Structures are given as C-alpha cells and as structure tokens.
C-alpha cells in the first residue's frame, strides 16, 4: 500500500464544518442520539479535545474526546472517531486513537471510555467494561462499552455513573 504523509493536529475552528460533514456521512442524522454526542452535549462547559488527520491540506479524519467523571474519577469519552472512506485502511484511525490517548494521559484521565466495535478497538488496547460497573445516560449494548486504562488497574477500581466532567 502506498505510504501517505498524514499529519495529526488539533482541530481548528475552520475544520468544524468539514468534520460535521464527515460525521454526517458516516453516521447519518441518527448521530445526535449516539452516546458520545449525548455526553458531549451534557459537558458543554468542558472544552473537548479534538484532533484531525490531514493529507496535505485535506482533512481526512477526526476524533474527539470529552472530559467526563465516572463517580469522582477523571476520565474521557472518545467519539466519534471517523475516517474518510477514501482513506480507510491506512492507519489513520490508529494514529488518531494514539494521539487521543496521548492527550488524555497528559490531561491526567484515569481511562478513556467509548461505545464501539470491540473487534476494532481491542487492537488498540481497549477492552470490555465489566458489566454493570459504569453507567451511561442512556442504553448501551454492554458488548460495545469499551475502555482503555490510562492508569494501571483503573478498570477494576472505577465504578459509577458517567457525567460531563470539568
Ligand atoms: C472505523 C474507522 C475509524 C477505521 O479507520 P481506519 O483509518 O480505516 O483504521 P486503521 O487504518 O487504523 O485500521 C484499519 C483496520 O481496522 C479494520 N477495521 C475497520 N473497522 C473495523 C470494525 N468495525 N471492526 C473490526 N475491524 C475493523 C480494517 O479492516 C483494517 O484491518 P487490517 O489492518 O487488517 O486491514 C473507519 O473505518 C470509519 O470511520 N468508519 C465509519 C465510522 C465508524 O464506524 N467509527 C467508529 C465508531 S465510533
């Protein structure tokens, strides 16, 4: 496969419309009902961490992390992660996840939570949250509730309801 020169950068205000188009194309109008969107709405006061992938000046992928609290523990909700279909399978999803994890670690979160396909995210260190330990505002398929520990043992230690963090 041809190597692409991909850069990962903080999302700027000028990227907003293109990111929205990418998310709309991937998830459709139902995207606003997705858990990550709902959590983001609840945490409006918190600056989310957002990154984009670029090939040259073209924005080809994006990821967002929202600060949350699980009980009193600082954590992040990741999502949505989206890559332009024309650029899939070239490691851009992986690069965005790695940059997100780096930022979440720097911001001293204990873990990153997301709702997604275990088959994809398990390649990136995410594993299933033990049933009943973390509650989200809305129904979630327990098989899709995944977390990446940023502190060793965080997933065993942390339990409670998720709310928008600060
Ligand atoms: C999922 C997504 C972000 C992956 O982006 P990407 O840049 O193609 O990812 P990478 O290049 O890092 O990884 C590609 C690999 O993951 C695999 N993969 C992609 N989606 C997968 C899924 N849902 N389940 C299992 N494996 C998956 C690909 O088959 C590929 O495998 P290979 O390396 O063996 O060829 C992208 O396909 C996408 O935006 N999809 C639509 C939106 C979405 O579903 N987002 C995630 C839900 S929050």
Describe this structure in words.
The protein is of the alpha+beta class and 166 residues long. The protein has a single domain (6-164), classed as 3-Layer(aba) Sandwich (Aminopeptidase). The chain has helices at 16-27, 35-42, 92-106, 118-121, 154-157, and strands at residues 6-10, 49-55, 58-70, 73-83, 111-115, 127-128, 134-135, 145-149, 160-164. Strands 1, 2, 3, 4, 5, 6, 7, 8 and 9 form a nine-stranded mixed beta sheet that branches. The protein is globular, with a radius of gyration of 15 Å. The mean pLDDT is 92. The structure holds coenzyme A (COA). Coenzyme A (COA) binds next to β4, α3 and α4.
Question: What can be said about this structure in brief?
Answer:
By secondary structure, the protein is α+β, with helices and mostly antiparallel strands.
